[in-house]
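User: Sorry, what's this?
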Amino acid sequence: MPTPIIKIDAISKSFGTFKVLDGLSMQVMPGEKLALIGPSGSGKTTILRILMTLERIDGGHIQIDGEQLYHMERNGQLLPADERHLTRMRQKIGMVFQLFNLFPHKCVMDNVTLAPMLTKGTPRAAAEKRAMELLEMVGMADKAKSMPAQLSGGQKQRVAIARALALSPKIMLFDEVTSALDPELVEEVMNVMRKLAAETDMTMLLVTHEMGFAHDFADRVLFFDRGRIVEEGKPDEIFRNPKQERTQGFLKKIIAAGHRV
């Protein structure tokens, strides 16, 4: 059996008195495409933000690619990770956010090249060459000199995907990347993600309310409720024949709202 690229062991996370995650454990295998579904507030996005070190855990351990994320090994002991360790670990992971998070004062090319130049010391010429390859892949090469304000929501999200890919991460996290888009723009972003899933061996975690896309995209689906995994399985198992009553109730509401599963 291959070693999990993500191993989460009994992590907990609270915001004030609200416990978002309580002893959560899960594993993700290299190259796996995982969809995290469930009601708002169930902890899905918090998991992604914890993996990206945007939120810190209160307890437990996480390993990324065989290394501790929030801890460092020193003389056989596990110590809290320092900023240098966290910076190095972040380079293994890329994240695409719901609201794009592009730098509004920088053109598309500068948005994509900034991180490789700053964090890896990539020379500008090499960073721009790679950026053009990625922009070509997401269908945005002709907008390299455009400013974010000149782009549609779907175009901004495709640039954000190219930017996350620029550091050549082993793991990509997608947090509700279509929920802020007009309906007619959703498909163009989904098509880029389908292409990524089909053409790369990257591990990908997707938080989404687009159940039809989750079904088509994922190797495995995890249904979350109140910070724990209620049910997991292959897409057909979860969407066609869910075993848990809570999963059944959630999917009935989704179907009643007119969404495809």
User: Anything to note?
Assistant: DSSP finds nine helices and twelve strands in the chain. Residues 95-168 form one domain. The radius of gyration is 19 Å. The chain has a mean pLDDT of 91.
